[in-house]
User: Which sequence fits this backbone?
């Protein structure tokens, strides 16, 4: 077991983890933060996307020990009390989710995308989010939501 | 073991990592047996999956008899084949289940399912329990697309929880899900179509060979739906359908977004294109010639489908207008004359499908709460379809309540008395109707209460729907709002009267539409880019257009993906080659365009809402439109056939074949 200290959504968590523990399972099973989902195990679907020190990563491909000393932001850390983050609000308003399973990953990837490129074109959005998969929406309203979030300013 | 994905052992552990370690210790010594992967080979009955049965044929539908005179009087007869390739439904959430036996001996199962109430009955039946002792909870479910109904794995989890006397849970990995969760489509089709020189279809024969995988579950039944819908939107006087389902050493086939109906549309649309090509007629005009006219409804096809309502030519016109057909054809002509590598293709499909196909009944219950709001309990289920909103809107409108005051409850067999769940695009037309009729009955009960309180005749009590207020006819006062009535009834111990249940049964409805696809095909590399997809999907009266449009978007994406990307592939030994999202061509946002959805509403007379199903329409219309567009782009190259998916490889091969 290895001792790590990870700041998740502003709170420091010290824990003992097996070195092989993936960050996503550390978040879900050790910290009980179930907002981050697992959809594929092969870094294909992006449902597990979180931010490490502001950069989006797929947490099924990061070991918990690699996050030692880092600041991790999950979907639970976006809203300010009852007030949704501008990206969450845009997904809600644009009907950009149906079953919602991919949504936390898309929201986190969008936060990261808009940080790098605050005014992306449709093409930049589509390529910027191609590491995230959705089976329900056909991506149409997700693209619309990212555009709306960009307009609203993040 | 009959396929990769069959269960060979179960390992219980107290943690994920230790479970994975323990599972690696299971060594299975396999003796290889001959396998059969392709349904055409399976139909030869040389390698038998169930030797004791002497055949791989698990089901037949339609008639195996050939009418020798079927094509009599036809000037032109064309034959061809089409494979509706095997797809993986791929809900983003893999299956997950948990089970626990309570101190009272009752079993609670948490399932990622579309059908909690049906699962409860199956669990009770298989495990020999009283259904009252089984509670199924379907929490938020991450997509289903037809594949998430009770399976052996979930049965085993519940059985194990009883066996070991401890809570048991299980979540499959994606690679497990890709081989063990049922697949869809996998139908091999041969068609023959004949008619007059001016494009009138007189006769159509469709033979469907359905691969149903290693165990004949729903897949064995699907050709029945294909046969029922074989005529599509066309008035065809003579149709012959023969379906056979065969077992193979592959993942079992079950429902997947469309389930038997996309196959029917793909076949007739291909056949019609082939017929038009042979006659050198415009495929759009040939469609027009054969469409069932608007004034012919209700219309029963020769395959015994009783279409309720439709305006097929209206849908086609709307789609062509939105697409700008003339401009597209000008652009196509320009590119053909320039002779560059990137050619334009325009494809059109017309379709009709069947929803609530087996005359099902759904449960709805409406209860007024003490604060004057309402609870709607539905036996339908929502795993992304938004029934929480749609059903609340339906009940709110009948009750005269703000939609925010209506809460929809579903997915827990202890909370909802009975139900069938969600599949086959049937929810709104039966579940929504049940909620509506239960709400109407609650209003009648409420009027009785108000009449008692006002010492008036119930016939004189009216509900002002805009204000949600009961009055004695013609008098502004006295009046009671829902909260006032509920509070008073609660104080009198009569609130329970404001709770009514309704079971609504209905015959099927037949949504329809027309899609136009525009593709750019690189004639040197075979690369296809979908530029536009215009979708007219008429599902009758829409309750919530935003949600309905979302269903079309997702449906269209899946239909396009069958046309261009996805295919489950096995090698000759039955080893799956597409068992992760790395190998399986699940499209991303970069692979698809914005969808151009055009609304059209032709109400059904089958239910008072006028609503048909919308969940699968987009899928059904999109595949043949895109397939047709790719073939259209390559028509000058002499390409008449491309296997789906029309990806770079298959298109390139078709181009090479046409050259040789």
Assistant:
């Amino acid at each position: 077991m290895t001792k790590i200290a990870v700041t998740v959504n502003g709170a420091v968590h010290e824990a003992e983890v097996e070195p092989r523990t993936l960050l996503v399972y550390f978040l879900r099973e050790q910290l009980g933060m179930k907002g981050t989902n697992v959809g594929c195990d092969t870094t294909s679907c992006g449902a597990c996307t979180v931010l490490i020190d502001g950069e989006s990563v797929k947490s099924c491909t990061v070991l918990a020990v690699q996050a030692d000393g880092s600041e991790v932001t999950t979907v639970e850390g976006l809203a300010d009390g009852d007030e949704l983050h501008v990206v969450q609000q845009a997904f809600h308003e644009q009907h950009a989710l149906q079953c919602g399973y991919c949504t936390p990953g898309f929201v986190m990837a969008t936060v990261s995308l808009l940080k790098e490129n605050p005014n992306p074109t449709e093409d930049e959005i589509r390529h910027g989010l191609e590491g995230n998969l959705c089976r329900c929406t056909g991506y149409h309203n997700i693209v619309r939501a990212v555009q709306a979030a960009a307009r609203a300013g993040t | 073991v009959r396929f990769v994905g069959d269960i060979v052992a179960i390992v219980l552990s107290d943690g994920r990592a230790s479970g994975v370690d323990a599972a690696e210790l299971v060594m299975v010594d396999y003796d290889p047996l001959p396998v059969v992967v392709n349904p055409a080979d399976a139909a030869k009955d040389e390698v038998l999956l169930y030797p004791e049965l002497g055949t791989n044929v698990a089901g037949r539908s339609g008639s195996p008899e050939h009418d020798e005179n079927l094509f009599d009087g036809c000037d032109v007869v064309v034959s061809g084949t089409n494979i509706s390739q095997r797809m993986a439904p791929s809900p983003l959430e893999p299956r997950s289940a948990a089970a626990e036996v309570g101190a009272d001996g009752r079993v609670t199962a948490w399932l990622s399912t579309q059908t909690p109430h049906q699962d409860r009955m199956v669990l009770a039946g298989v495990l020999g329990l009283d259904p009252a002792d089984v509670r199924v909870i379907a929490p938020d479910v991450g997509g289903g697309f037809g594949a998430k109904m009770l399976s052996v794995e979930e049965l085993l989890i519940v059985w194990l929880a009883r066996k070991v006397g401890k809570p048991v849970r299980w979540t499959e990995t994606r690679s497990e899900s890709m081989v063990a969760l049922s697949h869809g489509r996998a139908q091999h089709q041969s068609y023959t179509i004949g008619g007059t020189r001016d494009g009138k279809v007189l006769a159509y024969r469709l033979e469907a060979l359905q691969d149903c995988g290693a165990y004949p579950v729903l897949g064995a039944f699907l050709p029945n739906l294909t046969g029922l819908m074989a005529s599509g939107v066309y008035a065809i006087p003579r149709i012959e359908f023969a379906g056979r389902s065969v077992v193979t050493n592959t993942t079992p086939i079950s429902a997947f977004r469309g389930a038997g109906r996309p196959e029917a549309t793909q076949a007739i649309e291909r056949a019609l294109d082939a017929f038009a090509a042979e006659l050198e007629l415009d495929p759009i005009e040939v469609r027009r010639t054969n469409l069932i006219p608007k004034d012919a409804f209700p219309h029963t096809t020769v395959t015994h489908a009783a279409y309720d309502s439709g305006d097929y030519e209206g849908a086609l016109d709307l789609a062509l207008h939105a697409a700008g057909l003339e401009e597209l054809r000008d652009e196509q002509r320009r590119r053909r004359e320039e002779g560059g590598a990137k050619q334009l293709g325009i494809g059109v499909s017309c379709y009709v499908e069947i929803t609530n196909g087996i005359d099902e009944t759904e449960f709805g219950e409406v209860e007024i709460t003490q604060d004057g709001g309402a609870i709607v309990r539905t036996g339908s289920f929502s795993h992304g379809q938004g029934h929480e909103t749609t059903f609340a809107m339906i009940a709110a409108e009948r009750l005269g309540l703000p939609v925010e005051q209506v809460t929809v409850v579903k997915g827990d067999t202890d909370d909802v008395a009975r139900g069938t769940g969600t599949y086959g695009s049937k929810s709104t037309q039966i579940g929504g109707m049940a909620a509506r009729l239960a709400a109407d009955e609650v209003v009648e009960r409420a009027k009785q209460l108000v009449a008692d309180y006002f010492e008036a005749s119930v016939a004189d009590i009216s509900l002002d729907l805009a204000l949600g207020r009961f009055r004695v006819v013609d008098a502004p006062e006295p009046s009671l709002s829902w909260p006032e009535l509920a509070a008073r009834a609660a104080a009198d111990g009569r609130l329970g009267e404001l709770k009514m249940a309704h079971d609504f049964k209905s015959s099927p409805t037949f949504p329809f539409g027309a899609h136009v696809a525009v593709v750019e095909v690189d004639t040197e590399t075979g690369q296809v880019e979908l530029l536009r997809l215009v979708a007219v999907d008429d599902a009758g009266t829409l309750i919530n257009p935003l949600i309905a449009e979302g269903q079309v978007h997702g449906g269209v994406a899946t239909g396009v993906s069958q046309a261009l990307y996805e295919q489950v592939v096995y090698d000759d030994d039955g080893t799956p080659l597409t068992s992760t999202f790395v190998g399986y061509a699940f499209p991303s946002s970069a692979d698809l365009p914005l969808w151009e959805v055009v609304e059209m509403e032709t109400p059904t007379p089958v239910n008072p809402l006028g609503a048909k199903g919308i969940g699968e329409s987009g899928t059904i219309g999109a595949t043949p439109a895109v397939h047709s567009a790719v073939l259209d782009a390559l028509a000058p190259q002499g390409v008449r056939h491309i296997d789906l998916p029309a990806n770079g490889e298959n298109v390139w091969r078709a181009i090479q074949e046409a050259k040789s």
